[in-house]
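Progress against Task 2.4 (sequence-to-structure conversion) is shown through the following example record, which the project officer requested during the mid-term review.
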Amino acid sequence: MPRSVFTDAYAAFRDTLVAVRKDAGVTQIELAERLGKPQQFVSKYERGDRRVDLIEFVAVCRALRIDPKEAFALVLRRLPKSFDI
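Structure tokens generated for the chain above:
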């Protein structure tokens, strides 16, 4: 069974985070600074090298000035109809 960061569902989640960041006109470096993290933190979750938990998701959304509920709705729309966990 594939690790969950490499599933189509998790790719949809990562792609949404990248799209939200880019739509906000924010670079990885700027987002990392807003989060108080190194740029590699953002790069690693965007590449799928690390998972993002719910608290981090909310922090990323707030740093991008997007309502976490709106971002989550975007994730839900991008998820495949069915997927393994």
